[in-house]
Amino acid sequence: MEPEARAMARALGLPRLAAGRYSGNAPSGPVEVFTIGLGAANVPVQQVNDRDVVILGGVAGALDPQLKSGDVVVEAEAGKELGTIVFHGKIETVDRVLGGLEEKAQLFRKTAALAVDMEGAVVRRLFPHFVHVRGIVDTAADVLPVVFRSMVDEAGKVRPVRLLRLLLTQPWLIKDLLRIGRQNAQAESAMAQTVMRMVIGWKGQ
């Protein structure tokens, strides 16, 4: 999503080359950041070779009750040096937003995954050297109104007309919207800082 890509690029000091693409150099070598869209609809397969390490960064919902908003979950190949992380474990991929508490609880019992996203499985299948980093927005105890999903487009940008219509017709959701916005910003920042520490920490490896 564009907001997450922008957060990572900012943390790494990468300039914007084009819409959804940032590129520059880190201590570990050349780094590029791409926006892949909701459900990983725009993965730049041609831009990656078999030796590259692909980091998928973004935000996610928690399945494990011990996770809090702003925590970071990392899933990576065995033996990869991760630097400072908060939690290390499985991130499950689904094809839609999970809003209900029981739905989250059932998926946690079934998979033992710490968090849930909508892109990881697609990217994992494509690239042999894959690291998955997610900042937690909603906890396992948070109910996320499904209507919020329609407020952003496939690149993660807010649809202003739909947002205005929602606020006019369902003003009682404003409090939840502001809370989710704060949690999302915190999760993006924590995720981007973790990615930055990883990239810098891989110098010379």
- Percentage of β-strand residues: 15-25%
SSE arrangement, N to C:
HEEEEEEEHEHEHH
Largest sheet: 6 strands, mixed
Looking across the biggest beta sheet, what order are the strands in?
A: 6-5-9-4-8-7
What is the residue-averaged pLDDT?
A: 85
Number of strands: 9
What proportion of the residues is helical, as a percent range?
25-40%
Primary descriptors:
205 residues, six-stranded mixed sheet, single chain
Write structural notes for this entry.
With 205 residues, this protein is of the alpha/beta class. It contains 5 helices and 9 strands, in the order H-E-E-E-E-E-E-E-H-E-H-E-H-H. It has helices at 2-12, 101-111, 120-126, 160-169, 174-201, and strands spanning 16-18, 21-26, 29-34, 54-62, 72-76, 87-88, 91-93, 115-117, 130-136. The strands form 2 sheets. It has a 6-stranded mixed sheet. Helix 2 (101-111) links the parallel strand 7 and strand 8 (115-117). Helix 1 packs across helix 5 (174-201). The model has no long low-confidence stretch (mean pLDDT 85).
